[in-house]
């Protein structure tokens, strides 16, 4: 073996060793940081529980504990309702969590922005969602997904039009199924909240909207759903519209369902969905 070959072999072996050391170092540091975060969360959880019990509690001062407090509160607030959620939100705002979360939402790091969204909503109880609505246009998909989930989780019905519009965005698109779930959790009482969808020609947006109308029983959206069943060129949108009409169960939908069924060729598997919808709606008419 020549000296050059031996040198190349030695360099290759050294590179492998350096790579292994780097991997082990990253893993060790990551494990240490994870353990530190878990200890911090365990330390601040009793503080938050005392707040919910109505105790006069002072927030920790150390920076990593305050960050852990905000993140733990963000996880906890999804399990709270009514006065408990409001009490926690008021206390977090008094402790400066709202302002700190707004600063973190401007962080250059996407994970920090995503966690800040949840902390902000915990500190506001979902009553002022506009700063989070703006994050639906964030450049990073993880942040946009966090905004969608958090807006739905806090029941921000006022954010529904923005959520729907985000589905149709070309530059900062979000998952239609995630938005549908968020809108269902927010539970708007009128299909008017879905107005951006009715103006769209995107099949994914329209299918999401008719699903929401059916799941929430928004009867004032019946006309839009019927129109899509009649006129949409997309077969999936028509199928979802038929299923939404089945869920609504309004007898006034019988004629449009009959017309849609008449247009389906004999033996087409799509006829089954229309038959099922017709049977349900006719049963309601009786």
Automatic annotation (TrEMBL):
Cited SUPFAM superfamilies: ARM repeat
Gene3D superfamilies linked to this entry: Leucine-rich Repeat Variant (1.25.10.10)
Tell me the keywords, alphabetical order.
Answer: Membrane, Transmembrane, Transmembrane helix
Q: A Pfam family matched by this chain, by name?
A: HEAT_2
- Record InterPro entries: ARM-like, ARM-type_fold, PBS_lyase_HEAT
- Annotated transmembrane regions: 6-29, 145-166
Q: How is this protein named in the record?
A: HEAT repeat protein
Task: Name the source organism.
Answer: Cellulomonas oligotrophica
